[in-house]
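Chapter summary example: a protein plus 2-acetamido-2-deoxy-beta-D-glucopyranose.
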Amino acid sequence: MMLSSFFVLMAVAWPAVLACQQHVQRDAASLARRTIVKEPESVILKNVRVFDGIARLPPSTVYLSSGLIVPFLSPHANATVIDGAGQDLTLLPGFFDAHAHPETTADLLSFARNGVTTVMDMACSTRAECLALVREHADDGLPSVFVSGATATVPGSANANLPGFPANETIATGTREEIDSWVQSQLDKGASYIKLIQDRPGQLQLSPEEVQTLVNASASRGLQTNCHVAAYDSVGIAVEAGVSMVHHLPFDKSIDADLAHSAKRAGTISVPTLTMMRAFGAILAPGMYDIALESVRTLREADVPILAGTDANAVNKLGIPIATLPPPISFGPSLHDELANLVEAGLTPLEALRSATVLPSLHFGLTPDRGAVLPGLRADLVLVEGDPTKDISVTRNIRKVWIGGVEVV
Ligand SMILES: *[C@@H]1O[C@H](CO)[C@@H](O)[C@H](O)[C@H]1NC(C)=O
Ligand SMILES: *[C@@H]1O[C@H](CO)[C@@H](O)[C@H](O)[C@H]1NC(C)=O
Ligand SMILES: *[C@@H]1O[C@H](CO)[C@@H](O)[C@H](O)[C@H]1NC(C)=O
């Protein structure tokens, strides 16, 4: 396939955004009807190995009460006791998916059953569909969802032409005033951060100056910026502008040491979404995935923080002919694929686990309440059989999941 048509395909397929429209009404209604079905339990986990977000601890006891991890529970407390003695169990913080496009409650349930307890939505084109899924402090056993609002792009871009993209949500003139009010409108609608697109220099998209203005307008409101990138030069533009995170990786050539060091100096975080890169590679050219793996190796050597994100989507619900799209990426199981892909790219299993727990919590500013196994934090936890700090594949062996102390599996 020619490179130019490839990039058009990229631009059409990636921001899986778009999918939501027809599901919005139904989903909002079903969430409104949802009532709390379970109370957070008091639980004592004994003799379980713990990955606390940073390191592997010897078998310990962990107490859950009122939705939190607590320092202690009286032996007389009416608590469920789970004794891992002789069972080879590991307790971990609930996983983050740092790049996903959930649309429905069913998607959230699928995340929950697979141990994903916090989901960062990375593009939702209208207000209703995003807010319908926001579950920041839910106590009904569904994952927390944070949203970006609309994607920053220009009229007529491949993104703006996607079905369901609201015409009035594009950035038309690129003036400081327009960009400023666009960012404010995303914030007013409940965006936790901003999403923007840099596919390939030369495409119809925000100019490097407009990207810089957008980053400044976001930063002045305390909003992080998340930039979709598809080419080496796009990463350069994003890093130069000081975006908080670059999502995906270049397909044309690997990030080299120079660019990785620039990213490190700029404080840019990488969300490689290797699962999606792999799915595209399988369809278009396997070499693309090798280029992506090489980028991750280089970013890691430059000590750029790497977060686990999948691009989980249901993009085929869009009505775009399936032949032009990658396979939809599952909500939940794909996070375990991503962990394995990160290890394939050279992360140690411990580093891969951090990329889905303490690091996304830190870099999305959620450390005060989640991402580690520590008294005082939310009881968002996963209990697996085996030792994932040695063998990453065992994160799939899920025995139990708690979200806010509510047992979901
Ligand atoms: C103890 O907890 C169980 C399950 O949570 C509940 O069914 C039972 O009524 C509780 N007993 C007491 C004495 O609170
Ligand atoms: C676009 O229109 C929708 C629906 O009227 C409105 O909620 C939204 O705020 C508008 N967006 C902008 C950026 O003005
Ligand atoms: C963005 O902010 C930086 C640092 O405050 C400043 O140097 C730069 O001129 C600003 N650029 C734009 C386009 O607003």
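Key point: The pocket of 2-acetamido-2-deoxy-beta-D-glucopyranose (ligand 2) is lined by residues 127, 166, 168-169, 182, 185 (CB under 6 Å).
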